[in-house]
Amino acid sequence: MAKEMLTGNAAAAWGVRLAEVDYIPAYPITPQTEIIETIAKWISDGEMDAGFVTMDSEHSMVTAAGAASATGARTFTTTSSQGLMYGFEMLFTVAGWRVPLVMVNVSRGLSAPITLGPDHNDILALRDTGFLQIHCETCQEVLDSVLMAYRLAEDDRVLLPLMVNMDGFFLSFTREAVEVPDVEKVRSFLPEYQPEHAFFRAGQPMAQGVAVLGGEFYSYFKYQMHLASQNALEVYREVSDDFERIFGRKYGTIDEYMMEDAEYVLVMTNSFSTLGKAAVKRARENGIKAGLLRPRFLRPFPEADIRNALKGKKAVAVIDQNISVGKGGIIYSEMASCLYNENSRPLMLSFIGGLGGKNISQEEFDLIFEKMIHAEDSGIVGLPHLLYTKKEWEGIKKLKEIAGRQ
Amino acid sequence: MLRLRFHGRGGQGAKVASRVLGSAAFLDGYNAQDFPLYGAERRGAPITAFTRISRDDILERGLVSQPDVVVVMDETLLSDPQSTPLSGLKKGGVVFVNTPLTPLETKEEYGIEDHVITLDITKISLDMIGKPVLSSLAAAVAAKVAGIGEKALRDALEKELSGIISERELLDRNTEAAIYCYNAVVPISIETTEKFREKENVISIPFETALVSSPSILSKGNTPLRRTGNWRIFRPVWDYDACTKCMTCVARCPEGCIQLNEDGYPYTDYANCKGCLICAEECPVGAISKVRESHSQTEEEDQ
């Protein structure tokens, strides 16, 4: 099928349509709403055959989605930011049910102060739930990842729910050329879901998601989820190989840009990685051997691939588009723990950038490379740094004046 | 890479214009990206939308801060401090303004030094489509400036508009008006050089106590300072000979802008009237007419 101009939201909706999902419980929230609007219109126009129900809240929505997934229906739902938080309790529950629900989260900063721009504290708050996580840079990647998500989540060796993430506005509302695959091809990649472990049938009674009293039982079930999540890395290799064979596009657990001979590496996720790639190109023009590593999976964390990609690098700068208040960048901590036991490991610098969709300017990227080179020369790694410019500081000063806060 | 920025008001079609242009460029064989930016969606509020067109991969995202081309779909935005449509325009860049003024008059009126093209697309839209919806017309002007072919534009209009306009005849009128605008604009070559960009200084921000750094507002009475009168495309004008002083308009105005004068006749606060024209629709005797705004009114003129 030919390419067409699609937003990240429309690309997600296409992924759901092509996966021939059976049931979609929904609740609107900016900047996600376009996904459910698009799906609702297709269903209403008879172009898609699925059950669609608007719920009273995200808490009910996640519950309905998990329950539907437990009946053996291929289920999809989507939310963003505050909505994800409102359904938060049920995310742990649904993951514990071991059902292959696929959700899309459209990242948006968390209140307070309330905002619309993207950052990743919403999706990263989920990291301990049991949901697998795929983070996307482009609209094509969103569509493709939804398809791969069902293959992976429905695999018997995994059977965990999966969240596909994209940035609000910067991807959800940005259109670029996307190839919408042919449905027959998709069927050969993603056959109809045949549930063998979780389903409800008349005449075959069972109880799912039961209570256990006793830590030894609880520990068993929780650790099984962890092992299943680890399995997903191996299973994903098969999924990714099949996807490449059928559709010609290759997606690893990590995306590597100009990494082969790179000495100084940016680590970024999601759509701002595009800005990071432009910065790498500029740095290369200035004689700096720069590269970019973009983890696509954050759960399971692709430790082996990351260690392998960073072998022999001089310095790594992690740009976290999130902040764990009281600790700092979340991905920085995860990267550091993943490299700690390596005999020879790069220096690692921490930057917080792009919170609430704040721009990362050329000079901010320049500073990052400068600090990496300085750390390599001196052996001294500076403190974690919030990327912020003087002009932005003047803006916040003015805002405070207007608000009577000085 | 060519970077275009559209400035319009919510409801005028800036987002759709950026999409039609994006599709046209894509259909003409370019890499393209389009993206709208608006806060809380609100009819009449300033919005921007962007289109990037390139032979190479586009390694950019988000808003365009240094456009080669600016398309001003609503002239009043040129004097709106919330909008500043010309900011960041590159040297040698092009400004299109939707105005009845000539390019020279526009340059003088707004002190623009860059290349200016003008066309009264609101009038063309009213004449040819019957309502002031500017998306396809603004896209057509931009497509001409960007050097996109007419066939790609026609195909893009068909693709983008057929999803939002169900009436075939209305879609055809849109296309006809767009092609009229496309042909009315003389092609020019754009050779921009990056404007001297003020280097950003990266800083470390200090701790400030929550008395300063919590997101709450202590000062009172800011809202009346924000005038919304320049959102109007049409202004309501009362004919006191026909008015029966029934006060329906006063009751129906959603903004509470309409009051009564000493003689009991209604008048509106033009500094804040958004031009929704519910008053004109609701007036039982048709005493309120719609008069096209050609430029923003100052407060003194309104009194």
From TrEMBL, chain A:
Enzyme class: oxidoreductase
Protein name: Pyruvate:ferredoxin oxidoreductase, alpha subunit
Assembly behavior: Heterotetramer of one alpha, one beta, one delta and one gamma chain.
InterPro entries in the record: PFOR_II (IPR033412), Pyruvate:ferred/Flavod_OxRd (IPR050722), Pyrv_Fd/Flavodoxin_OxRdtase_N (IPR002880), THDP-binding (IPR029061), Transketo_C/PFOR_II (IPR009014)
Gene Ontology molecular function terms on file: pyruvate synthase activity
Species, as recorded: Methanococcoides methylutens MM1
Keyword Oxidoreductase: yes
Record carries keyword Oxidoreductase: yes
PANTHER family named among the record's database cross-references: 2-OXOACID OXIDOREDUCTASE (FERREDOXIN), PYRUVATE-FLAVODOXIN OXIDOREDUCTASE-RELATED
Lineage, broadest ranks: Archaea, Methanobacteriati, Methanobacteriota, Stenosarchaea group, Methanomicrobia
Enzyme Commission number(s) of this protein: 1.2.7.1
TrEMBL record, chain B:
InterPro entries hit by this protein: 4Fe4S_Fe-S-bd (IPR017896), 4Fe4S_Fe_S_CS (IPR017900), Oxidoreductase_gamma_subunit (IPR051626), PorC_KorC (IPR011894), PorD_KorD (IPR011898), Pyrv/ketoisovalerate_OxRed_cat (IPR019752), Pyrv_flavodox_OxRed_cen (IPR002869)
EC code(s) of this entry: 1.2.7.1
Domain 4Fe-4S ferredoxin-type: from-to ranges: 234-263, 264-293
Reaction catalyzed: 2 oxidized [2Fe-2S]-[ferredoxin] + pyruvate + CoA = 2 reduced [2Fe-2S]-[ferredoxin] + acetyl-CoA + CO2 + H(+)
Presence of keyword Ion transport: no
Keywords from the named record: Oxidoreductase, Pyruvate
Domain of life according to the entry: Archaea
Any one GO MF annotation of this record: pyruvate synthase activity
Binding partners and assembly: Heterotetramer of one alpha, one beta, one delta and one gamma chain.
Protein name according to UniProt: pyruvate synthase
Species whose genome carries this gene: Methanococcoides methylutens MM1
